[in-house]
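[audit] Reproducing an earlier prediction to check determinism. Same input, same settings, fresh worker. If the tokens differ from the archived copy the diff job will pick it up downstream; this log only records the rerun itself.
[audit] input (185 residues):
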Amino acid sequence: MDTRTLLAMAAAILLLATAGVASSRNVTDADAPRQLEGDGPVAVTWNDPATFSEIRYSGNRWESERGDWVNELAGHMRERIAKVLPPGQTMAINITDIDRAGDYEPGRGPDADRIRVVRDIYPPRLEFDYTLAAADGQVLDQGHAKLSDMAYLSQPAARYRSDNLAYEKRLVDRWVETTVRRPGG
């Protein structure tokens, strides 16, 4: 093989290898998942993130769309609920709205609108529908949960210290402890 052919092959391989890295994923991408993959007792789906308060009312919609935070939060919900769910029971969750803690504040200088500012006026909020079913399919509980924590900055989030979704995960943890986990469970 001559040098030109080797260089062309190397360039093609490099291009293919970096194609996924070069384009960052947004939660609103058309090919982004709208449910968690895999089987188990907890199924989590979500509405189109473009309709979520986090994006619709953001000071910087483009920054709010970046990343895979919906999938990450849904995975946390599934994991926490699965740990306390009695054997044989199943739960279906459909996330209908998310408003993450903090917001982007435009007008703070060059590139400062890309920084999420966490203040008590921007509490985390999470809404979802849920259905808890017994092993035979009988519905044991269902409803629409609206979670919010107006005092989220006054309580330590040590468990999720370096996590971008610390406050939202803490909302989920509290809901699981008070709603899913039954007394004596």
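[audit] rerun output stored. Observation attached for the diff report: Residues 3-22 form the longest helix (20 residues).
[audit] end
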